[in-house]
Each structure stands twice: as structure tokens, then as C-alpha cells.
Task: structure prediction
Amino acid sequence: MLVGLSFVLSYGAYLAYTVLSEELQGYANKGENHRVGGVGLIALLTAPLALIMFGYHVYLIWAGTTTNESSKWSEWRSYIDEGLVYKLVGGTGKTAQGMCEPNIEPPVDWPIHSDQRLVRSEDGRPPVARPNGIDLNTNPNTPESSSAACWNSVYGLHEIENLYDLGFWDNLKDVFFPA
Result:
């Protein structure tokens, strides 16, 4: 659709040029077709914008994200740069499906499952894993603080698994033929 829009805008700019070409070359009838020239100029300038938007959408499909998710990933990137993100892999033994409440969020059959947990720390220290779950109120003087060794600092987004990135062709197939 965006490529078609860009084609139509380019064609509109071409038509405006052909209408005004004699007038531009001979400088005759100055100002009589200024509306055609204005529309042609707008079409000429907006045609690349539609192509750029199409390229951005192809990039989002390749990355396996939406525009909303890309802003959330940039937030995670800033937290990682500040050293506030920790990752636990397979800590509780629960899968992503087991973490959700079935009455609120029904299980979804998705091809990729992850057992990693990401936590943003407020003070830069790793969280304390307790038997009843994860507590972010870390106190280094408590006996449970020895379990903080299972939490690993995250140094880049490449260490984080994106569940929605199935690969370019599978993402493209999911866009055009959703299940």
C-alpha cells in the first residue's frame, strides 16, 4: 500500500510537470497554473516519505517488533546502559505459560518459549531470589542475599531473548497470514 501510494504521488508529480513543462520553458502565462504546480510539488516531496515509511515497516517486520515495542526496547537499552538490568535464566522452573493467570490471560500457543526473567533494579544491585518469588527490596545484610549470585548483569540487548522475533520470513508470514 505504501509503495503504491509512493507510485501514485510520483505519477502526480510527473503529470504536474507535463502540464507545466511548456509554461516553465516559455515563461508564458505566468501564475495561471500555480495550483497545479503546488500540488505537483507536494506530490514530489511526499513520494519519498511513503517509501521511507515502507522501509521502516520492513525493518520492524525484520526485527520482530512493533512501533510500541521498539520504544520499550529503547527503554530497556537505557536501563542496561545504566547497569540496572539483571537476568535470571530458568530460576523458578516455571515456563512463560505457567507465569500467567489462566482466568486473566489465557495460554497462547506461540512457537518460542523463554525461561529468562528480566528485572530492573532501582539501586543497581541484583534482586534477592526467595522461595516465594522475587523481591526487589535487596538488603545485602540478609542471609538470602547469597542467592543473588544466580542473577547476571545484562550488558547489551543481544543478551535478551525477543520472543516475537521468529526470523524475517516467519515474521512476514505472520503479518500477512496471522493464525
Observations:
- The CA atoms of residues 166 and 174 lie 9 Å apart.
- Strands lie at 85-89, 116-120, 128-130, 133-135, 152-153.
- Residues 34-63 form the longest helix (30 residues).
- The helical segments are 2-26, 34-63, 67-81, 96-99, 168-176.
